[in-house]
């Protein structure tokens, strides 16, 4: 798949996954960029588009893990970029805002389950977490989200 | 109201910046072109060598045809036996593997809220734990590639001494066999317009050639300049210089003060 096609087809998917984790536009962009570079470098032959998608998601999950505690992010936080981010979450929507308040691992499984419509097994394979861990994180996420959104009475 | 639908709807508002996408597409296309050109150079050298070899055989065609026939029959036997052994090994291996991913299996349980009463699904309705093959596929080549990517996914080792990390970073920047392109921008967005020229690059290297570790915070009063360096092995290292005094490399915990 050519670069232009790749960006067209998968940039939003990867960006949304990355943003759900980092809650930061620039870090999300950097993750997307790194994933595409890794894709070009790896030059893997895929069985089908589902296969390609799973591969990209897996690489995206594993990219950027060390950035959270880095000086770069601390400096960005000092510049009050975090405040802008909080406002942005509320503007996106109350459901997204509620999810954004969950710890990172919870946000990840919620995103993969509810946005990417992946199964527990697929999430386990992509994140390298045990199936029981994924189930547990999802269960706890639902409990926390129900509390946060109890007025709205969402169906999960 | 359905959480799933609402969460998806909220996500539709999250889109990458158009300027970022344009810059990214350009850089990926540049990278593609470079890889294609490297492949062409390699295959041209290979063809050239083959041609030279072939010319040497043409002069002795009868003898070489007989030898080729014998050689080919021998090769066919070797290939056949090897293939048979491989099939046997793969079959034995495949028998021991468990199922991994199935797109058809979803464990989504309806979770309805009626006032204060919450109905949870029974635990045994959620799918059983299965043994996972995290390579996701029976394609050995792909799983090898994934492992290689994750093994060397960082250009530095976590916990490595900051001075060592910095030295490696500087060495890589100075090595034109390693560094492919470097960009400079006053915002954290890069495109082909931001590629540094030689003078700018020399100035940068001179500036950051001597640093010390800095454990304090930065109270930024001046400008911040962003850099992005792309390396031939696919590594991307972003860094920034704040107030012309502090060097921050993305992913690294400490800050360096420029001497």
Summarize the SSE layout with pairings.
The complex is a heterodimer of chains A (156) and B (259).
Chain A (H helix, E strand, L loop, with lengths): L2 H20 L2 H18 L6 H14 L8 H8 L2 H12 L1 H7 L3 H12 L4 H8 L3 H18 L8
Helix pairs in contact in A: 1-2, 1-3, 1-7, 3-8, 5-6, 7-9, 8-9
Chain B lengths: L2 H9 L6 H41 L2 H35 L17 E2 L2 E2 L21 H12 L10 H13 L4 E7 L12 H11 L2 E4 L9 E8 L4 E7 L3 E4 L5 E4 L1
Antiparallel strand pairs in B: 1-2, 3-5, 4-8, 5-6, 6-7, 7-8
Short description:
The complex is a heterodimer of chains A (156) and B (259). Chain A is mainly alpha-helical and 156 residues long.
Notes on the structure:
The complex is a heterodimer of chains A (156) and B (259). Chain A has helices at 3-22, 25-42, 49-62, 71-78, 81-92, 94-100, 104-115, 120-127, 131-148. Chain A has 156 residues and is mostly helical. Chain B is of the alpha+beta class. Chain B is 47% helix and 15% strand. Chain B is built from 6 helices and 8 strands. Chain B has helices spanning 3-11, 18-58, 61-95, 140-151, 162-174, 198-208, and strands at 113-114, 117-118, 179-185, 211-214, 224-231, 236-242, 246-249, 255-258. Chains A and B meet through helix 1, helix 2, helix 3, helix 4 and helix 6 of A and helix 1, helix 2, helix 4 and strand 6 of B.
């Amino acid at each position: 798949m050519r670069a232009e096609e790749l960006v067209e087809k998968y940039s939003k998917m990867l960006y949304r996954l990355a943003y759900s984790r980092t809650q930061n536009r620039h870090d999300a962009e950097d993750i997307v960029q790194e994933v595409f570079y890794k894709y070009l470098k790896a030059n893997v032959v895929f069985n089908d588009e589902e296969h390609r998608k799973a591969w990209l998601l897996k690489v995206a999950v594993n990219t950027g893990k060390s950035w959270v505690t880095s000086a770069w992010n601390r400096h960005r936080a000092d510049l009050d970029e975090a405040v802008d981010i909080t406002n942005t979450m509320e503007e996106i929507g109350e459901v997204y805002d509620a999810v954004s308040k969950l710890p990172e691992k919870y946000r990840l499984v919620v995103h993969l389950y509810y946005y990417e419509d992946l199964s527990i097994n697929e999430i386990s394979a992509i994140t390298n977490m045990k199936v029981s861990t994924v189930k547990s994180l999802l269960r706890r996420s639902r409990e926390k989200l129900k509390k946060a959104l109890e007025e709205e009475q969402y169906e999960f | 109201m359905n959480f799933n639908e609402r969460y998806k709807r909220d996500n539709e508002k999250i889109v990458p910046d158009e300027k970022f996408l344009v810059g990214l597409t350009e850089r990926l296309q540049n990278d593609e072109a470079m890889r294609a050109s490297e492949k062409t150079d390699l295959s041209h050298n290979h063809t050239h060598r083959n041609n030279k070899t072939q010319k040497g055989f043409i002069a002795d065609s009868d003898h070489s045809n007989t030898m080729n026939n014998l050689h080919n029959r021998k090769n066919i036997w070797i290939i056949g036996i090897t293939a048979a052994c491989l099939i046997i090994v793969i079959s034995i291996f495949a028998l021991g593997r468990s199922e991994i991913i199935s797109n058809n299996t979803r464990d989504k349980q309806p979770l309805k809220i009626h006032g204060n009463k919450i109905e949870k699904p029974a635990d045994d309705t959620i799918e059983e734990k299965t043994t996972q093959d995290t390579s996701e596929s029976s394609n050995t080549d792909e799983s090898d590639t994934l492992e290689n990517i994750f093994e060397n996914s960082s250009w530095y080792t976590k916990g490595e001494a900051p001075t060592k990390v910095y030295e490696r970073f500087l060495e890589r920047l100075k090595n034109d066999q390693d560094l492919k392109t470097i960009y400079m921008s006053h915002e954290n967005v890069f495109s082909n317009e931001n590629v540094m020229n030689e003078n700018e690059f020399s100035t940068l290297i001179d500036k950051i050639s001597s640093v010390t570790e800095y454990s304090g915070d930065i109270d930024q009063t001046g400008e911040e300049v962003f850099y992005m360096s792309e390396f031939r092995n696919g590594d991307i290292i972003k860094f920034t210089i704040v107030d012309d005094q502090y060097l921050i490399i993305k992913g690294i915990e400490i800050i360096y003060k420029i001497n």
